[in-house]
Amino acid sequence: MDRVSILPDEVLCHILSFLTTKEAALTSILAKSWRNLLAFVPSLTIDDSVFLHPEEGKLEREDIIQSFMAFVDRVLALQGNSPLNKFSLKCVTVVDTDRVDGWVSNALARGGVSDLDLKIIIPSDIGEFYKLSPKCFECNTLVSLKIHRGIDISLVAGRILLPLLKTLVLDSVPVCPNEFEILLQALPSLEELLLDCVMWKGMEDVTVSSPSLKTLTMTLDYTLKTLSFDAPSLLHFNYSGYAALDYPVVNMGNLVDAQIGDSQLKQLREPDNDEDAHRYSKVWKLFHGIRYVGNLTLLPDTLEVLSMCSESMPVFNNLKSLTIRSDEDRGWQAMPALLSNCPHLEALVIKGLVHRVTNKCGDVCDCISRENKGLSLTLCPVKVMKIHGFQGTKKEMAMMKHFLDYFLSLKEMRIYAEENNGPTRLGNHEVCKRVLEMFQLYNKLSSCNVKVKLMVGDVLCR
Question: Which residues does UniProt assign to the signal peptide (predicted)?
Fold first, then answer.
């Protein structure tokens, strides 16, 4: 007998809980001691993409689909009323919604379910979405509820009982904004909320309000009329996608870190584009609401959007670390105002120095010669600067010399030449050596005393 098989049944069941239900069922052929364990596994992960291996044409075979549903029926019958902690059901071949209702009801009826994860897609000839049972919102043991695409949730006020729910995920599901507000009000323990491409019915006004929420991740794939946030306990905020036309309320006074990435916004290039100027004129309200954040990450498009409201940019008095992700098709127009409004900034991280050169980049970069060169940098108290994606080009070297010249409080510059996308020029020892010599020579000839460290991959160049 193998060493694993002699372990106590409780340990073996715990091991099986990390497998899909199909894989757990297959272990019954290993030895007699495994034969009946599936009946007591506290975690069921049912995924028809695992059962119905994606071979060509297999998903269309009615007998295979029926076999899958019969398998689920047998597993649930085998388990009877044994305790169940986690139930994950992912089906993209549903033809019998009543049967699926029975599976979900079976899991909830046992009591004790703390983790419910559902993705159910039905054929278009049956209906557009699977109607989720209201029972999923009347479970006083649920701690985590994840609802993915293909499911329509209809909430009934007064019938929501989720006192222990801490994590809620709504992924590509249609939701009525009014019902969503009712749902959040009924979740006194909610700490983590993920809203990924939710299809807001009406696409008008959406409010995310929760006094207990600590982590919010939200992606919008279209423009809302208004978007409000009332989350006074929020610590972590990640927002990406389209900007709303207005942000009437943004209450996030305790933010520790935030990432704003308007990744799907079109480029703002036309100098007199009044339509875009009006469309993004209220974005400053979002940034005003997160002005107390300690660590901020901005994606390339966000900088261009910010350039539309630089005059209204708030002062980030608590900001200690700022991370900027650059792109060769996006400009740094908002950088001068942004750096000027971070009076206590200590660390600046730039992921990629290459950006679109415009006459509005100001004195932050060295791309265009101008008077009052480097003025906004001299007023910035940054002590540590990190540059990622360094390639060792002359343009990059010129920009770093510019930073060394004008960041007067700078103590350390760390340069990273990652090789994730293939070898860099700095992989050549001689090139790396020349780059280091240039920095060392600069230190000798200038009055600054900045420690410059160059990392190529995981190797520190000396």
Answer: none
